[in-house]
Amino acid sequence: MNTIESISRKKIAVLVFIMIFGFAVLGLSIVLRENRTIPEWNGEIYNIENVNPLDAALAHPYSKKIDKAGTLAFVFAHMILCAVCFLIPGIKAIKKPRELVPVIMDFVIYGECWAYTFGVYRILKTVGGRIRPYMYFPNPSLKDIAEGDFISSWPSGHSSVVFLAVAFLFWWLKDSPMKPAAKKMLMASVLAIGILTMVLRILSGNHFPTDVLTGALVGLTAASVVFVSNKKVLGK
Asked: In whole angstroms, what is the distance from residue 223 CA to residue 168 CA?
């Protein structure tokens, strides 16, 4: 297993570039969001006929309880990931500094996955400016309207982030010495939570089906590319 000492300067430069570029994408997403133009809502319900048939058929009014449940679901997925990938290995290696290095490096890669995923989906939200489903029903989320979040339907950020966890855990478990049965159980659990999160985001009125599918694709792609790229540079 590679340590910091065994990594060439060229590889370190590539790793640093991957990290800096990721946080540059994140920074760009923040700048774009802060400078976006938010349309004024005139208080009228939007016409659902302007939405494609698939999304319109599965659109729902706003539900605060289901909204919170969706947030708890993706948080729980990352709690499982952090426990499996960082907490348990970290505790085992606490008295062996050299064994702790790979855990720290994996945590850095995890942070980069967040930066890329968060940055990409926020840029797409800002550029897309899609109206959320609950705006096509009475009693929309007044808090989101006040914050200008009612035009941030596509893609689903929750779906992006939860499938970041799915992708990261998949690649991390691939080279893990963990028993195959345990790997399958963990992957099935996190994948189920990912799908549940997507469903809850639709039922809460926050997203259309195409929003959550796109969000899942963003999370899977960003986390997979970042994880595999880092590991390839590290020679693993």
From this structure: 6
